[in-house]
Amino acid sequence: MSKPPAKPPTSSFAAFLNALSWSRLRKDPDFDAGLNSSSAWTEALTTPEGGDEDPLLDAEQGRPARALFTFEGKPEFRELTAVQAGDRLDVLREEVGDGWSLVRHFGSDTKPEVGLLPQSYYTFTIDLAQAPELEVPLSHERARSGKEASSSSITPRGSPTRQLEGPTTPLVPQTTGEWFPSFRRSLLGGKQLNRFSSFVTSGAEEFVLQGADDKEPPSTPGHDRQSSVSSVIDDGGLSEADKHFVEAGPAWKPKVPPFRILVHSPSKRTSMLSGAYTMYSITSLFSLDVAEDDDSPPPSPMRITVYRRFSHFVVLHTALTRRLPGIALPPLPEKQYAGRFNDDFVEARRGDLERYIGRVVRHPVARYAEVLTFFLGCESEIEWRKQYPQYLSYPPAGPSFYAHVFHPAFNVDSDEAIESVDRFDAHTRAVGQGVQGLRNIYGKVRQANIEMSQAQRLMSYSLLSLITSKPLAQASMAGIPEEEEDINPKQKGHMNEDGAWCWREGCSECLKLTKAMQKTSETLQNVADIYDDHARRTQLATHEALKSVAHPSATYAGVLETHKSTLVRYHEATINGQENEEVAARCETVLNTTMAEFETYHDQKVEDFTALTTEYLDGEIALYEQILTRLKAARRTFKPPVYDTLAQDARQPSMYERELEHPRLAAMPLSQPCPHVFDSAPMRPVSVAIQEGVGILLGSPARASVFGKFWS
């Protein structure tokens, strides 16, 4: 017999779980999380009644096959043991991943064994029956030993053919139907294979299959198809912050009115333990209720200010992620190790943290989370240091989060749930692509304003050079011919003694014209400054704000995955003849949660893009209003009575005349927004950024990176 092919190192499921468990155990000896192959894996192989096999697998018919090689598997990974070449097999599932099959083995024992076997270690007897020289008996006694038949009734693939005894009717393969759910029920207890799926890590899968964890205090109420918000059974003493309600829609029911958050006044501090760090002021603004018939001015909002550093935000985000696994939280800005005290970076980080905490408090569920209220309301530094480690020590909520969600009965239509998730997925992907394109274009718009600023400044210098007859340095770069002679303009007749642009002395008309044109030149310098400030400050804020709406697909990926996986379980639980009312009801709870998240995104998207568009328009309106005001003031100098008063005294030199020899035509690099966590392009390495910063100082013609100012 030929040499058996190399078998896979372990079964696809066993190898995955074993490697994961070992890597986690090396890092944390206390880590188990249900993935230890010696316990959780083997427990999933037995039935609740303590039997060794699933009755459905015992009764299921497979395709007849014969073992080609001897195989000694590992029983702890549910691999077949003591398989001899020629043994009779029934292949129940031909493909279960990575070259393995689910096979029933008829060995010497009275009871067949079901387990995993490499696909290359057996051959179907129906394949042999198709050969013209080969005839295979029709019937095979299940109680008969495979070893007895191996020498007389089977020929391995590729061996010389010979006539066999018995009937010549070929075997007909049997149809076993859809196989994956039954296989998952028998070997994995109904759980899916990907243990890193959001459906698994959020606790939704465990909740759907088994309900709430009895170990999670306090006790959680059950979920059935008759429960609703108006008729929820006893809540078991849950705190108000642990109960979440879904209204018809489905949509989250807000329990706390919205409020504003400001992150401001960053200051550098030093600790003996942690070294230097930046502290931010966090101010919560709560609007006070006013009677509708009260005509008095609205009262100032109530303010609560606390002081937090970036590591405190990490504590908040970690605790929220653990306690609210079913909602889509915004990503926390990445930690920065170099240049973190640079003024530009501190301001960018302040804006990122304000947008992060602002999106958290906008969520109708996260808004009243206990850890968030503690984060925003604890003004005592001693109390903060005492309490916040407890929030990090809380275990993940897991299935208890979904057990605490209450909703109207029959609040989800399965067809609508399928259609909505597909449309929501396509919509968020399209929004993400569109916003990424908008961010790129907006960067070019900002750069165009910088170029417009330089154009206005060059126009100002050119006017001033014209009326003073002083050459503009580097004028040839702008297409203006340079004068080789440097002679006093008054000696050449370009200007008179009053500084007027005229060869005649005492010419009042030219004096008024010269002063008015000088005023126009100075106004254009102001206009250039306005364009420059608008691109660097106002438009930078809008450019930064675009990050918060740039990656909706990545932000809601976990919710989408949970929704789709729950739909699969819901359909399995509602198949005719296999209905499971409890599982279906728990699926509806999870679907209410995910669809409420879809509705939350819809509401926030309207708010976000309304605010972004109006912010852009308001900024552009303010830009052109400032420019228009200054241009109108310059225009008034050409009209009486202002124009007539310009001839009363001699012209004074402009403050910009000294710049004609060294004009400000080389703009500093335009600061760009810090990258979003989900942006594909990471930050430049520190060494590259330092080199580019040095290049700026040395006058390198190479353009600096967008983070050059942060690192320099």
What level of helicity do the residues show? 40-55%
Number of domains: 3
Global Rg: 38 Å
Q: Please, how many helices?
A: 22
Counting DSSP E segments of at least 2 residues, the number of strands comes to 11
Strand content: 5-15%
| CATH architecture call of the largest domain | Up-down Bundle
Distance between the termini: 72 Å
CATH top level of the largest domain is: Mainly Alpha
Query: Describe the biggest sheet?
Result: 5 strands, antiparallel
Class based on secondary structure composition and strand pairing: alpha+beta
The multimeric state of the shown protein is single chain
In which order are the strands of the major sheet placed? 4-3-2-1-5
CATH superfamily of the largest domain: Arfaptin homology (AH) domain/BAR domain
Protein name: PX domain-containing protein
Keywords: SH3 domain
Domain SH3: 60-127
GO molecular function, one term: phosphatidylinositol binding
